[in-house]
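Continuing from the previous page of notes. For each protein in this section, the sequence appears first, followed by its structure tokens. Read the first protein now.
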Amino acid sequence: MCQLLGMNCNVPTDICFSFEGFHRRGGSTDVHADGWGIAFFEGPGCRLFLDSKPAVESPIAELVRNYPIRSMNVIAHIRKATKGVVALENTHPFVRELWGRYWLFAHNGTLENFAPVLAGFYNPVGTTDSERAFCYMLERLRQRFPVEQPSLNDCFAAVHEITNELARKGRFNYLLSNGEYLIAHCADKLCYIMRHAPFAPAHLIDQDVTVDFSALTTPQDKVAVIATTPLTDNETWTEMRPGQLLAFQHGDAVLSA
């Protein structure tokens, strides 16, 4: 099973602490050794780092660990290949443009017998069911809202409808973001934590590292972290229920279905 990591904040924040533990699952504390990727939104722009090497062996992962890029929306993925060979083009997150914004998508699971005919606006480069699902989702959204980006409420309702359709094809845990908000869907395993004042120390599960967030934040900061399984062992993570869809904005869970 692949591993997902997302972060949504109300101020630009670095993900170094969470990534420190998360990347260990790419070949050290877990068996996900078929590539990894991470993407950071910075305003409308997006930094994307991908590698088909295991995360614990990747020089690019080492760069990210020591490069405190600050972002309000981040998506990361560690791959365990089920559909498609181990190759850079099959590495998540995937990125496309819609309504003049970049959109990011990462998926954990497998969709069976999934081969929709695409209209041609979005086509997969690689051979994964995940990238094809992302292209299909964006095509459906473009068909529904052909001119401009809808409100978050309207977009969330459309994404919910498309998600329910695709979830009938198999396991469809995913993270989706356009840099303004982050949407998470739980098929069977996804959890989150929302950190806000008063901040406290947190200790990683995958590595003996502790950070005191009270020394690194202001009382106004809000940070939501979403992961396949909890990253820390001294905080209370909330498990999403199977089939639940959540939208996070400014470090809060703002919509649920």
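Done with the first. The second protein uses the same format. Note its length before scrolling.
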Amino acid sequence: MARILVIEDEPAMQTGLRDNLEIEGYEVEIAGDGTSGLESLLGHPYDLVILDVMLPRKSGYDVLREARAGGVRTPVIMLTAKGGEVDKILGLELGADDYMTKPFSLRELLARVKAVLRRSEHSTSGDGHVTIGSTLIDFPAYTAERNGKALPMTPKELEILKFLYDHRNQTVTRDRLLTEVWGYDESVSTRTVDNFILRLRQKVEADPAHPRVILTIHGAGYKLVV
């Protein structure tokens, strides 16, 4: 049974999410503010977090930022009344796995919960250690190292790298990366992908300004060459 932490301050939303998730067979815990939510996330194992952005005591963005900095790799779906592209990109770049704008359909949320849990299960059953460029990656453990030293990477960076590695020596479009890694077809700017690729090159390329591992295929997308 998957264990889900809901960090949400609105009582009606707490009740609705708990009831519907429990009907689907999930074990649910509730935290009513950002500080207590972060404490729960750092102190207990969960399979998924549903995280509101606008929270008392500590914002959802701060919760996510501090959790990732603390080594938490639990998948996160962010909920917010903000619908701007900048807000979505910020959440995704901080390490969110999906992003829903209020008001939303509970049916759609449940579908996304299943999709994120399915992707998480798949990603943790990966191929173990692989070398990409000058970086050693352990996909199941969500860790990376370079020259014998730990290399910080966000879960989303590792998921993108895993998808590119699984399709190595093939051209992958930006739209496909958005759909497959983030799990939805909404119109999110492909600049999101470009920004992540730039960051990944800094971590795997010997000379990021002249990439030889993650190539740009102009007019098409990207290719991981191994």
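What the second structure shows: The mean pLDDT is 86. The chain has two domains: 3-123, 129-224. We return to this in next week's lecture.
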